[in-house]
TrEMBL record:
<keyword id="KW-0444">Lipid biosynthesis</keyword>
<keyword id="KW-0808">Transferase</keyword>
<comment type="pathway">
    <text>Bacterial outer membrane biogenesis; LPS lipid A biosynthesis.</text>
</comment>
<dbReference type="GO" id="GO:0016020">
    <property type="term" value="C:membrane"/>
</dbReference>
<feature type="active site" description="Proton acceptor">
    <location>
        <position position="235"/>
    </location>
</feature>
<comment type="subunit">
    <text>Homotrimer.</text>
</comment>
<comment type="similarity">
    <text>Belongs to the transferase hexapeptide repeat family. LpxD subfamily.</text>
</comment>
<dbReference type="GO" id="GO:0009245">
    <property type="term" value="P:lipid A biosynthetic process"/>
</dbReference>
<dbReference type="InterPro" id="IPR020573">
    <property type="entry name" value="UDP_GlcNAc_AcTrfase_non-rep"/>
</dbReference>
<comment type="function">
    <text>Catalyzes the N-acylation of UDP-3-O-acylglucosamine using 3-hydroxyacyl-ACP as the acyl donor. Is involved in the biosynthesis of lipid A, a phosphorylated glycolipid that anchors the lipopolysaccharide to the outer membrane of the cell.</text>
</comment>
<protein>
    <recommendedName>
        <fullName>UDP-3-O-acylglucosamine N-acyltransferase</fullName>
        <ecNumber>2.3.1.191</ecNumber>
    </recommendedName>
</protein>
<dbReference type="Pfam" id="PF04613">
    <property type="entry name" value="LpxD"/>
</dbReference>
<keyword id="KW-0677">Repeat</keyword>
<dbReference type="GO" id="GO:0016410">
    <property type="term" value="F:N-acyltransferase activity"/>
</dbReference>
<dbReference type="InterPro" id="IPR001451">
    <property type="entry name" value="Hexapep"/>
</dbReference>
<dbReference type="Pfam" id="PF00132">
    <property type="entry name" value="Hexapep"/>
</dbReference>
<keyword id="KW-0443">Lipid metabolism</keyword>
């Protein structure tokens, strides 16, 4: 693709040869002829100067002598757009492959693709242009929207609802029973989990993630939310639109997450709390109470991020403080052995 065409697609300003070609993308330190790279900030200036890339996507005002540049407002977003153009996903043709199980009562759009050894249960609906890969299990009464991609070994249990353009990666499980039990004096009696899971449009769910069905009602994942691998979302959780949930995070039952919330890796949230919109939860945070909108929290137990950082800074001083206290104790002990007075004696 010519750079003048790429600059137009990226809504950027081209500095350099408009007729130079790019056919792929690569990291800036390994890119060569015909390759598009990107530099997110000025810290990559020296690397950009040495790069063999045919063109570099850069922030506005970024200058590299002798290089073709496309200046944009958001280099990462521009890179995503460029990759969509240069690496178009191969379209899989419509049809049901031999060896797939599709129940007679299922309604599968003619434009969708059901691969060999996929299972589509009774009364399930599959929308237009959706692709379901081998070994995926779609239980009875489930609804899969249009333009979805269900990767191998995904389990979508009965009654689960997916909107349009949802991507579910390998081995994810949607709609398994929530973790609900009641003491009966002898042991733990299971509380039947009769609710469902609703995944709204444009959600992406990572590999090996588990989203439990509600005890009653719905576990809901809001439009545009992206969930990483190995995340657990418990029964009756509500996650708002455009949230990011990073790997190994866990959200306990009936917790409510607002819109545009970022939950860092390995963070844990207890049950029945509320997190306001636009909150930031740091990696490995232990969230034990509710927080309002625009909060920035970290640590265990989670608290205001700046306060948490001050606490960790003070904790780092603890070893030297202990040494100082030990020295003072030894001096006091020597004074006492000699019959000397301490300030404590003087105060009596």
């Amino acid at each position: 693709m010519k750079l003048k065409e790429m600059a137009h697609i990226l809504d950027g300003k081209l500095r350099g040869d408009p007729d130079a070609d790019v056919v792929s993308v690569a990291p800036i330190d390994s890119a060569g002829e015909g390759v598009l790279a990107f530099a997110a900030s000025e810290q990559y200036l020296k690397t950009a100067e040495r790069s063999g890339a045919s063109c570099i996507i850069v922030p506005k005002g970024f200058h590299v002598e002798g290089k073709n540049l496309i200046e944009v407002e958001n280099p990462r977003l521009a890179l995503a757009k460029a990759m969509e153009v240069l690496y178009k996903r191969e379209r899989i043709g419509p049809g049901i492959e031999e060896g797939a199980h599709v129940a007679e009562t299922a309604r599968v759009a003619p434009s969708s693709h059901i691969a060999t050894l996929a299972y589509i249960g009774d009364d399930t609906r599959v929308g237009d242009r959706t692709v379901i890969y081998p070994f995926a299990y779609i239980g009875p009464d489930a609804e899969i929207g249009s333009d979805c991609v269900i990767h191998p070994n995904v389990t979508i249990c009965s009654g689960v609802i997916l909107g349009d353009r949802v991507v579910v990666h390998a081995n994810a499980v949607l709609g398994s029973d929530g973790f609900g039990y009641a003491r009966d004096g002898v042991g733990h009696r299971k509380i039947p989990q009769v609710g469902t899971v609703v995944v709204e449009d444009d959600v992406e769910i990572g590999a090996n993630t588990a989203i439990d069905r509600a005890t009653m009602g719905r576990t809901r994942i809001g439009r545009g939310t992206k969930i990483d691998n190995l995340v657990h979302i418990a029964h009756n959780v509500t996650i708002g639109s455009n949230c990011l949930v990073v790997a190994q995070a866990g959200i306990a039952g009936s917790t409510e997450i607002g819109e545009n919330v970022l939950i860092g890796g390995q963070a844990g949230l207890v049950h029945h709390i509320k997190i306001g919109s636009r909150a930031f939860i740091g990696a490995q945070a232990g969230v034990t109470r509710s927080f309002p909108a625009d909060s920035k929290i970290s640590g265990y137990p989670a608290r205001d991020h700046n306060r948490s950082m001050r606490g960790y800074a003070a904790l780092n001083k603890l070893p030297s403080l202990i040494k100082k206290v030990d020295k003072i104790d030894k001096r006091i002990e020597k004074l006492e052995q000699k019959g000397g007075k301490t300030s404590e004696d003087d105060s009596r």
